[in-house]
Amino acid sequence: MSVIDWAVLILTLVVIVVYGIYKSRGAQNIQGYLLGNQSLPWYHVCLSVMATQASAITFLSAPGLAYSSGMSFVQFYFGVPLAMIVLCITFVPIFHRLKVYTAYEYLEQRFDLKTRALTAFLFLVQRGLSTGITIYAPSIILSTILNINTTYTTLFIGSLVVFYTVYGGTKAVSYTQMLQMSIIFCGLFAAGIMVVHLLPADIGFVKAINIAGKMGRANAIDFTFDPNNQYTVWTGLLGGFFLQLSYFGTDQSQVGRYLSGASVSQSRLGLLMNGLVKIPMQFLILLIGVLVFTFYQYNKPPIFFNSFELNKLENSKYNPELNKIKADYDVAFKEKQVEVNKMNVALDKDDKSLIDRQRKALQQADEKEKSIRKQATDLMVKNDEHANTKDNNYIFLSFVTQYLPQGLIGLLIAIIFLASMGSTASALNSLASTTVIDIYKRLIKKDASDHEYLQASRLATVFWGVICIVMALYASKIGNLLEAVNILGSYIYGTILGVFLVAFYVRHVNGRAVFFAALATELVIIIIGKLDLVAYLWLNVIGCLLVVLLSVIIQSMMKKTGIAGEKNNI
Amino acid sequence: MAEHDNPVPEKPEQELPPFVKTWKQFYRLLIGWLVFLILIFYAFTKYFE
């Protein structure tokens, strides 16, 4: 990185951190610290909700996913608009009316303490683990730039985020997220323009997508019904709907964002606008990955995008073998480039038979290149059995640092930092809210002063920060980070959502029935997940429906045996 | 009902959404937008595959 890039990066980070601290001043009570005094307008809610979901992981992993397997991941977000509607009709008015701090508070009012404690516990486990991954993602950046192990970079980033989050409450988080999202949109736009600009003169925007499309990278929609296919329209609409509804409706990191809205209408509008913008935004991020893919058809990509792992191999006794593999890789790339040029000509002529022939030739060349890359990763494992052989998360980063102009590199890297800081701050804030409101205040110290709860919230933020940093240190062994977070969520979200749906819509079921139904469901979900019986998005659907079904069955059994408890009507 | 130290006064909930007359219409608009996006992406996939 040049001096200009470092200056842009440092300046942006300093401005954001100072802005966050400045905005957090005056958060003297627990209500202000955790809910931002419920004073924010809809556009604040919208951008805050988006920034919480679109972390650095989104920015790093999504283009890498598009590069390696195409755009089908966009379907994952098809459930967002539907989930937003259900949230606006049911969740938002109830949470606002009851003036809860956390979503789980409502469950005690509707069911009982143990159901509230169980869901709060599941949330703390899920969010605690996934926030570790969220912290790890930007640490990859420093690792690549400075060429040092991710352990040190994870510690640095994690500490910075914890410091910032402990200082700033919900209001500061929301204000900085609004600024962050504005910068992210600008950065994405600039990156897209630059990729197209860097393509050969005869390759325009449309042709770049056309070439990538012929190599299977423009596959945005898949209507097949294969239950093992992770990303289809159906998994997106159904599985995605349940996952998003659960995420936005029951995950405190999101509930906390829209609870800070000034009114039901402001919260609603913020969520609905998110439903309008989310899918096109994700499509554009993936499209950048597709354009980067086409770019690398004309510019030789590194044999492995993670330069840290590659350097390790180059400095080992296996370097002569690696050099041989690199030579084969160079030949394979040149051969593929010939086929790409032929495809370009075929596209110009609009010759369908020639395009079909070239498509097959390109696929063969692509496979050959992949097999050579596999030889290199096998060698990495031979050299170090703990080597990280997944490089999806490094693809976009590698492109940014090698090909973008000075200044823009610093800005894009700053954006990744900011995105990560925003989502991590939300997560730590919500973990602290749940720990203090649902555990400490409810179970440990009921009658403390407001100041004590505020101090407890800050301490809880530090505690979770440390836990998340430790988790982040283990995240390097997980393949694609974005998928890892979603898979982890799918193990738990369905169950929590089921509990909330029973609370809202199945009025005759009481706390005991739903509690045991949730426990049994979680067990079943873990078994199904471990046996890998279905694509992970379906776990949300199965988990949710199973809780509802089992709750009704257990309730009727309890009624027959005469042990049905009292129900609340909230 | 949970007790909080600083309860927030109830805010009026009669605000209407922008562009349309009722929240129901906004929900329909969002569903229409989703269908439109799926169709556009399908056309995108078919055109470039």
Automatic annotation (TrEMBL), chain A:
Pfam families according to UniProt: SSF
Nuclease in keyword set: no
Topology of the protein relative to the lipid bilayer: Multi-pass membrane protein
Transmembrane spans: 6-22, 42-62, 74-96, 117-137, 149-167, 179-199, 231-250, 271-296, 408-432, 453-475, 487-506, 513-529, 535-554
Top-level taxon of the source organism: Bacteria
Signal peptide: none
Cellular compartments annotated: Cell membrane
Keywords: Cell membrane, Ion transport, Membrane, Sodium, Sodium transport, Transmembrane, Transmembrane helix, Transport
InterPro entries (UniProt xref): Na/Glc_symporter_sf, Na/solute_symporter, Sodium:Solute_Symporter_SSF
Family: Belongs to the sodium:solute symporter (SSF) (TC 2.A.21) family.
Protein name (Swiss-Prot/TrEMBL): Sodium:solute symporter
TrEMBL record, chain B:
Protein name as catalogued: Uncharacterized protein
Keyword list, A-Z: Membrane, Transmembrane, Transmembrane helix
Residue stretches spanning the membrane: 26-44
Organism the protein comes from: Pedobacter panaciterrae
